[in-house]
Each structure stands twice: as C-alpha cells, then as structure tokens.
C-alpha cells in the first residue's frame, strides 16, 4: 500500500474540526478548512510538496482576517452564549494544589479543569471561577 500525503492533510483537517466542535472558538474551524484545502491540493498535485503547506498557510490567514468581523458580530448576537464564559461565577473545589506560579486542578460541577489563581489554594478548598480561557480557569477562594 502506497502512502499518500493527502491522507495526512485530510486526517489533520478532521481532527481540527472535531477540536472546533469541542471548543467552539472559530479559530480551529478556519484552520480545519485551510487544511482541507491543502488535502485537495495534495491529492490533485501529489508531486508538488510545497503547495499544500503554502496553500494551507495562505488560506488560514485569509480566513482568519476576512471572517474576524463576522465572528465578532456573531458573538454579539442576541442569544449567543460564548462557551468561554459558561463557567464564570460557578463554584467548585480544588483537587490539586494551586499556586501563583503553578497550575492545579479543580472540579466545577462534574468537570475537571486546569486552574490558576493569584493565591495559594489547597485541595478541598471551595473556589469560584472568575474567568475562563479555552483550557484554564482562573479561580479565587470563596471566603
């Protein structure tokens, strides 16, 4: 069986789209589409190795630049709930110690997250989420 490069591009595109569905950030969607463009070009022009990465880079950059206003407008639309804010103001519990220089883990509801805090927090301490990035919660203790 011959290995063909376009399969790698296709698999990378699928993984990026799955990651986009999990995170809902829109950035991975554009990268996934760009990688699909690279997969098509790798399939059509298998001998031109420089073309797929160049096309993926250019299309990702163009998609991000030209659709940024669209995503900003979508995020401001009535009824849109940004997944990056869904845990803000929720209470939870520290599972692994957190310090200002080291991430720890917390449980919020049934989910376990990496967390940072400006204070030392020990396991079992109750916390409140003050902000959320895609993978890390910023928490403070409940006093």
UniProtKB/TrEMBL annotation:
Name of protein: NfeD-like C-terminal domain-containing protein
Superkingdom of source: Bacteria
Localization in the cell: Membrane
One Pfam match: NfeD
Transmembrane segments: 6-22, 27-44, 50-67
InterPro entries in UniProt: Membrane_assoc_protease (IPR052165), NA-bd_OB-fold (IPR012340), NfeD-like_C (IPR002810)
Keyword Cell cycle: no
NfeD-like C-terminal domain segment(s): 85-141
Topological category with respect to the lipid bilayer: Multi-pass membrane protein
GO CC term, one of those recorded: plasma membrane
Species the sequence originates in: Rufibacter tibetensis
Gene3D superfamilies, per database record: Nucleic acid-binding proteins (2.40.50.140)
Keyword annotations of the record: Membrane, Transmembrane, Transmembrane helix
């Amino acid at each position: 069986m011959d290995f063909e490069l376009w399969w790698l591009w296709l698999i990378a595109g699928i993984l990026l789209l799955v990651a986009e569905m999990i995170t809902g950030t829109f950035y991975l969607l554009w990268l996934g589409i760009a990688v699909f463009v690279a997969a098509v070009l790798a399939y059509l022009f298998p001998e031109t190795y420089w073309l797929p990465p160049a096309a993926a880079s250019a299309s990702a950059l163009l998609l991000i630049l030209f659709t940024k206003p669209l995503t900003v407008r979508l995020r401001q639309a009535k009824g849109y709930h940004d997944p990056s804010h869904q845990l803000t103001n929720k209470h939870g519990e520290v599972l692994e110690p957190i310090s200002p220089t080291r991430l720890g883990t917390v449980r919020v509801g049934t989910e376990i997250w990496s967390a940072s805090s400006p204070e030392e927090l020990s396991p079992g301490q109750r916390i409140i989420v003050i902000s959320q990035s895609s993978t890390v919660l910023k928490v403070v203790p409940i006093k």
